[in-house]
Each structure stands twice: as C-alpha cells, then as structure tokens.
C-alpha cells in the first residue's frame, strides 16, 4: 500500500476537533478524555495526512456496543487490530478512498498505551530540533521506499523507540 506525506497543515487541528466532537457524542458518559496524537498533532513536521485520535474510555469492554454508531458515521470497525485491549476504527473518504482518521481507543486502566502516545507527542513538541530530525527521517524513508507503507513504518521504529 502506498502512502503520502505532506508538510504540516494547520487545518489538521480543526479536522481533529470536528471529529473528536462526533466521537465524544458517541461515547457520551463513557468517555474520560480524547486526544489528538500522531504526527498531525505536532506543529512543523511532515506527516501522512491522517488524523490519529485517542479516546480514553471508562471500560474498553463497553466500546463494542458503540460499533454501529461508528459505522453510521462511516467508520470501519476493526476491533483490537493487533493491540490487546484497544478498539480501532478507521475512516476513509467515500470518493477517493484515502484514509482520513485512525481512532485508537483505550480504557483508563491502560496507562502504558495512553502514555506512550502522549509522551511521544509531548517530547517532540518540547524538542523542535528532535521533531525536525524525525520529520527529515520520515521524508527520507518516504523517498527511499517510494511511499511503501510497510517499509516506511518499519523504518521509523528505531527513532520512535529511542
């Protein structure tokens, strides 16, 4: 699968806010918090133009009862999708089929996964020099692998896990 990367787009924050509002309405009282994560949440760096959203809920086991609500707003329901105690949803443009949103839902008891996402974002925002290195790496990997998603993602692992 091919990907694209783009310079930071200030509209990503607005896209996040609108979608986060929809997700917040779905989860209602079961929602603890919701965050914009991933590269689109980090000013000044290049990113795949896909907004990553992290809702934190009271109980991960209750999330499945909301699947039809997500489907009603054009999400694909993917269950845990390789990460235990996560519920993952994706949304694509109806016409172009390009991915728009990734929703990574965890419950409040899964502090490990919540914190790893939030800490990476916070670190790069607090260290713009490191964020620039990360952005440069992403651009180099995109060129090197001609937009191949798997190789691009695998190439970032050593940086992300530093």
From TrEMBL:
<dbReference type="Pfam" id="PF04229">
    <property type="entry name" value="GrpB"/>
</dbReference>
<dbReference type="InterPro" id="IPR043519">
    <property type="entry name" value="NT_sf"/>
</dbReference>
<protein>
    <submittedName>
        <fullName>GrpB family protein</fullName>
    </submittedName>
</protein>
<dbReference type="InterPro" id="IPR007344">
    <property type="entry name" value="GrpB/CoaE"/>
</dbReference>
């Amino acid at each position: 699968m091919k990907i694209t990367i783009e310079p930071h787009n200030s509209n990503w924050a607005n896209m996040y806010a609108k979608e986060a509002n929809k997700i917040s309405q779905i989860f209602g009282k079961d929602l603890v918090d919701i965050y914009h994560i991933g590269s689109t949440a980090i000013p000044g760096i290049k990113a795949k133009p896909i907004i990553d959203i992290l809702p934190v809920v009271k109980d991960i086991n209750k999330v499945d009862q909301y699947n039809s609500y997500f489907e009603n707003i054009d999400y694909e329901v993917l269950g845990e999708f390789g990460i235990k105690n996560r519920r993952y949803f994706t949304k694509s443009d109806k016409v172009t089929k390009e991915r728009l949103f990734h929703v990574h839902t965890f419950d409040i008891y899964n502090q490990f996964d919540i914190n790893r996402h939030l800490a990476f974002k916070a670190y790069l925002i607090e260290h713009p020099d490191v964020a620039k290195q990360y952005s440069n790496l992403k651009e180099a990997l995109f060129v090197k692998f001609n937009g191949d998603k798997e190789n691009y993602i695998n190439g970032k692992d050593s940086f992300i896990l530093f």
